[in-house]
Amino acid sequence: MVLVILLAVLLAVVAGLVLYFKNAWSYWQKRGVKVPPVTFPYGHAKSYMTQKKSLHVMYADFYNEHKMKKLKYGGFYFSTLPVLVITDNDLIRRVLVKDFASFTDRPMYVNEEADPLSGMTFNLKGQKWRNVRVKVSEAYTSDNMRMMFETFENHTKKLGELMAQCIRDKRPVDVKDTFARFAMDTIGTAGFGVECNGLSQQDSEFRKYAMKAFQRDLFGVLKDALMRICPGLMFRLKATLIPKDVSDFFIKLVGDVATYRETNKVTKKDLIQLLIELRNRGRNVPGESEMTINEMAAQCFGFFSAGFDTATTAMTFCFFELSRNPHAQETLRAEIREVLKKNDSKITYNAIMQMPYLDQCVSEALRMYPPGGLLVRQCTQTYRLPGTNLTVEKGTQIRIPLLGVHYDPEYYPEPYKFDPERFSPENKAARHPCAWMPFGEGPRNCLGMRFGLMQVKVAVVAMLNQFRFTLNERTKLPITFDPKSLSLKSEHDIFLNVEKC
């Protein structure tokens, strides 16, 4: 009798699951949207959830399949979560720019009580996002970039010393690791006002906790998937994506720096100084709320996490492509030396602005290897997709496969070829405005775009002025992307030979 009851319960559970998945996987079909066959229980996300492909490559493949069929959008199931993937650039521009009022939010998990650092600007929604972005954007003006420039220059000297040591030791440089440490040093100083010593110390405390924040195993991938599929349940369970000891470290760091500066009347040219000033303004201006230490830490961590990934990826792949394209490297080096000669051999903000081919090389590297790889939005009010019969319901998640757009031969013939001339003024003007979006587009584009670009350009100028780079045989080709990473990263280390020039 007990066995019969257990069997009946099991059959009921199985039947319930079948009905649940069947109903979930009928969402797009009911709305007349074409979808490829699904796989239980992954939907269309099996390659990512089983760590066979990165998130960005998975969506790029989906983009390519739909473009071949001349479809402007397609239905995608992230397990049971229905997602609308847009493959037409005019519709992409509608979502990101023209009709932004209907897509103001990102579908990111935020639980500031259980996971304080999740309250970074990138994740925030609605009016709170607007309020915080307006305040924090003061840190990213051109004037502030000029003030922070000294930070970049100081750290490039240490970077040059490391390259010189590689030459003396007759060993290649691991650019993925080296530029990650360089990015950590510059962003740590500009964001938190501390010396991270990433280039000089492999085991610095800041580096230890920063790297732990970005490490993700299979459990982390699955937890991320659950936060996307059922954020309400994860919120009630007080789930965290950032480990508690990492949160505690960064919150204490920001609190200690803020207390020290306010007690000793110390001011510096960095993000945390701006946040201290915003906090004081909230204390003294009627109607403005005082920013808490947790909120300050979340903004500093958001600045760090976005800048770290962007800069590391951009620098790593820019040097990788220049090492494989000696003509482009020599052309860029000639421009660098010509401009520096006119500026007393000094690398300055104004000198960087006088290097158009530098901008073309960095832009092409960001086209081929966009750090985000994928843009996400959430429909915030019912919306009729222009030129179609589809009504997008409030709450629907949108995916824009940036990697697919950037490799689309409609915009970039021979897309796997590194060609800086794609970004000459005339070629840029002839392309669709949404054909290049490594920093996003519209009101929710990347706040730290200027900072990230300047950081990359300073490193390129300083290193190419002194050293020549070629590809080392230890580098595994073709490049594959880390399936565990939420940003676009090489799965393996990238080694380059370096010599004085």
From TrEMBL:
This is Cytochrome P450. Gene3D superfamilies: Cytochrome P450 (1.10.630.10). Pfam families: p450. It comes from Photinus pyralis. One of its GO terms (cellular component) is endoplasmic reticulum membrane. Its cofactor is heme. Belongs to the cytochrome P450 family. Its main location: endoplasmic reticulum. Heme binds at C446. It is a peripheral membrane protein.
